[in-house]
Amino acid sequence: MPKRLAINLCKVRLALLLNKFQMTQTFIVNPGGKLHGTLRVPGDKSISHRAIMLGALSTHGTTHVNGFLEGEDTLATLAAFQAMGVSIERAYQGEVTIHGVGLHGLQAPSAPLYLGNSGTSMRLLSGLMAGQAFSVEMGGDASLSRRPMRRVTEPLSTMGAWIETTEKGMPPLKVHGGQRLQGINYTLPVASAQVESCLLLAGLYAEGTTCVTAPAPTRDHTERMLAGFGYPVQREGLRVCLQGGGKLQANSIEVPADISSAAFFMVGASIAQSADVLLEHVGINPTRMGVINILRQMGADISLHNQRKVGFEPVADIRVCASQLHGIDIPKEQVPLAIDEFPVLFIAAACAAGETVLTGAQELRVKESDRIQVMAEGLRALGIDAQPTPDGMIIQGGQIRGGVVNSHGDHRVAMAFTIAALRANDTITIEDCANVATSFPNFVELAQAVGIDIRL
Ligand code: S3P
After folding, report:
1. Is 301 annotated as catalytic?
2. What is the pLDDT of residues 93-147, one digit of tens each?
3. Over pLDDT 90: what percentage of the chain?
4. Which residue from 2, 118, 336, 421 lies 20 to 30 Å from 45 (Cα-Cα)?
5. Burial, 294: exposed, middle or buried (Cβ in 10 Å; 0-12, 13-18, 19+)?
6. Which domains occur in the chain, in start order?
7. Using CA atoms in the order 280, 284, 288, 292, what is the torsion angle rounded to 10 degrees?
8. Ligand 1 pocket: which of 46, 49, 221, 438 to mutate (most atoms <8 Å of CB)?
9. What spacing in Å lies between the alpha carbon of 334 and ligand 1's midpoint?
10. Residue (of 23, 221, 206) closest to 120 by Cα position
């Protein structure tokens, strides 16, 4: 690793350490609670990231965003573009105005970009930065610094990009500017929207056509938003293509509530006695619907109301009532459509009658934590028979006990174990919860408001 990159990495790690030292957070959740009420969870994380990116790269225009997720991850993306000279104003909660600078209007940042916990920021920005005239360094927290980046750097280097990683192919990254990119025809080894989006964004700067083929459907927010910004994108089945050299037209964006955040309350309302919850204005893009499909197959009582299209995305109000869940073999094709929801789906499985088997989900091992290992350890600490496998888990439904679990700094693990308390017979203490702020900053307040007995 070059010396300057190593020094910058040390600075980033020091900042992280100080930050974590000040911010260690524990959730204490008392057992029981009846989930009732209407709530709107914060804006979709994936769409919020992309709104900043495409808004910033639009030619001569202002993009107004409503419902933007003011979480640490998306704010890291926002700060990165401000550091590259883009004027971005935040007004009321979730209202953001971005003054586009065009595809070639970004400026070199004066310091490395710090992207915190956010894999989406780092992977999507890798593609965008590969096409710039200037060089950029990007780093993140301890979790992000352990996440695999070769999945983006390898295809990007085939396009002509020059990106340095650590020896293990992890952050920090140094993206060298001034390279000529060529379109490629790339087949993804794993279904990953981050890699697909990264390559499409690099493709904006490439000569010729960039085509990406996924082994299975993944979230398609990038191509929907590109099309919404007037950039032609062609899709044929699992293959998506675009031509470099076009322009993005500024547009307004309404970000729906994040189905991945709503998922905690969907499972909560399914497992809590006589629960009845209405989740408003939730994004129901078919490429994100896995959690609903899986829960329904387990016997959940979920109904969609007032279905409508808002901007580029379908939206609905989702009502969830208590039900008796039963274990299932989770269909493999649902895995990429529910990839972020497995921590809380494991809680659903722990409360279901019989056995639930997940396979084909090895990607969970390289998320913000190793979600197979960390969730299995936590479930076992709470008395549930959970057997981790290389690519999934086998869970026998049973009585959740009280106890202490560690989220390993993983936001979705922390929130999943909070939901488990609804069916526990004693208090659950969850350690290392500060990162909940990356995706769901008002989780504790909303959980309290609908009947969960949680305190910090
Ligand atoms: C995301 C894609 C998913 C998901 C992540 C957000 C995105 O990752 O887990 O939280 O916004 O594109 P993969 O593409 O790596 O599966």
Report:
1. no
2. 899 999 999 999 999 999 999 999 999 999 999 999 999 999 999 999 999 999 9
3. 93
4. 421
5. buried
6. 20-43+256-455 (3.65.10.10), 45-254 (3.65.10.10)
7. 70
8. 46
9. 14
10. 221
